[in-house]
Amino acid sequence: MFDIRKFGAYISRLRKKADMTQSELAERLNLTRQAISKYECGDSFPDISILIEVADVFGITLDELISSGHPTEKEAVILESAVEGQDLSSELEKQCISDIVNIAPLLKPSLLDKMAKGLSKHGIDISSLVSLAEYINDDAVVKLLENATYDTINENLLERLIPFLGGNSISIIFQKILEGDLDYRLIRIMLPYAEYIYPQVEAAVLYGDLNEKALHILREYEAENDRLGK
């Protein structure tokens, strides 16, 4: 698994070996000294687009630079391809999901969106999507939700996921509840983020498409809002 602190420590060693100050390295890379300090401490990671410049400054290969973070084989391939501008979306396998999740904080949303659309062809477990959702845009989330497996979903998992979902993504999950694929009790987690489903829940119960107990969830939600003065 890629270790951002080991990567940062390696940059620090290279800089010192080259007898450069953080300010001098920052000037070479058109960055601030504070940015270099954060990289070296492992508090942040350089934009993918400048990794080749970093490697050039120290006269090492891109592979050597990325390897300093001790990535898995697939993480290394993904990172190097990202730096070189290669489109991996059509080549990603389901087995790559954990690697993408691990390095997601290092990649731009636009790049992750392309990867997500590639992964959507294979289908991923909803628990993996929880780890990716905060890094990708809603269009990519929608693609993943459409072909995801929901065996592991529960209220706790949805509670972690839903703050990162847009309207289209929430609609997909709600539709699966209406179709009976997911537990109606998940509505309890959805209401604070999607009050517009309120009349749809009532209508679904009226037409027999949803368990009558879903109405109790609505009433409990109303009562709680009244208690809090909302």
UniProtKB/TrEMBL annotation:
Signal peptide: none annotated. The keyword DNA-binding applies. This is HTH cro/C1-type domain-containing protein. Pfam families: HTH_3 (PF01381). Coiled coil: none annotated. It comes from Lacrimispora algidixylanolytica. GO terms for molecular function: DNA binding. Transmembrane segments: none annotated. Keywords: DNA-binding. It comes from the Bacteria. Residues 11-65 form the HTH cro/C1-type domain. InterPro entries: Cro/C1-type_HTH, Lambda_DNA-bd_dom_sf.
